[in-house]
Amino acid sequence: MATSAQATALACLDGIQPLLSAWTRTIFDFGETAWREYQSAAWYVERLKREGFSVEEGSGGMPTAFCAHWTNGPGPTIGMYAEYDAVPGNCQDAVTVERPRPGLSEHAGGHTDPHSGLGISSLGGLLATKAAMQHHGISGTLRFTGEPAEKVRGSKPIHAAKGYYDGLAGMISFHPFYMLPLCNTARWDTHCGAAYAMIYRFICDQPERWARAAGAAPIPQAHSAARAPGANDALLMMYMASKALRDSMLPHQGGWSISEAILTAGQATADNLPAGLAEI
């Protein structure tokens, strides 16, 4: 049976349910990918300020992160957080057919998990907790962090290293699951294990020009003479080696994995020049 404080929190959620739906659609339509969630972060900052929170923008030196506080007297500090980064190449309109959002390509960012819903649901829980604390005189502090770039292991390690989780009595994570009977709660008693991310960068300052030998193409054809090795060759060799290595490692399935992604280089706009930089 719910306590009076829990009943107040649930009543708050019932009252703001239409707002939560509209807010989710707002973040969904932004569809901003990792480290580029400028509109999404600005929306959260403005909303939290309206709800009486003090907000540090750009927390931890990250432009699209934030850290919000609200205090109701001395007591434990409870942490919650919002994720709001979208996934590149998954632009989808809020309809039941496959169609990108108006004015965008399907290759633009879109929410697939969706972090739009995760973040707003966490915000709803935050506001309900605040309402219960105020109504029943429960003392303590709420700390709410904005966590950009979750898909690439982004802000959380930086927030942790810079002390934004220090002093917490507990951290509440909202992450529903798609299988009954777990669909309305968190899947795990203890959250997922640690994950590590790193980027390997291959730089080719001066590509080989062995094709430009005596009697070969003159200066106007210099581009055709600048070929291998190039940074892409080194990247592809590592990519294939990683694929072969994974098949020889245990376990092959479950919660453990190696994921690799080739990061496209911004300067790769000409097909007659070798890539000067490649990242994986």
3D architecture notes:
This protein has six helices and seven strands; from the N terminus they run H-H-E-E-E-H-E-H-E-E-H-H-E. With 280 residues, the chain is α/β, with parallel strands linked by helices. The chain has two domains: 4-171, Aminopeptidase; 201-279, no CATH class. It has a five-stranded mixed β-sheet with strand order 1-2-4-3-5, covered by helices on one side. Strands 6-7 form a two-stranded antiparallel sheet. The protein is elongated, with a radius of gyration of 24 Å. 25% of the residues are buried.
In short:
The chain is α/β, with parallel strands linked by helices and 280 residues long. The protein is 32% helix and 11% strand. It has helices at 4-30, 38-50, 115-136, 155-161, 222-225, 230-246, and strands at residues 54-57, 66-71, 77-83, 141-147, 170-171, 201-203, 277-279.
How confident overall, as mean pLDDT?
84
What is the percentage of strand-forming residues? 5-15%
Distance between the termini: 52 Å
Structural class: alpha/beta
List the helices and strands and how they pair.
Blueprint: H1 4-30, H2 38-50, E1 54-57, E2 66-71, E3 77-83, H3 115-136, E4 141-147, H4 155-161, E5 170-171, E6 201-203, H5 222-225, H6 230-246, E7 277-279
Parallel strand pairs: 3-4, 3-5
Antiparallel strand pairs: 1-2, 2-4, 6-7
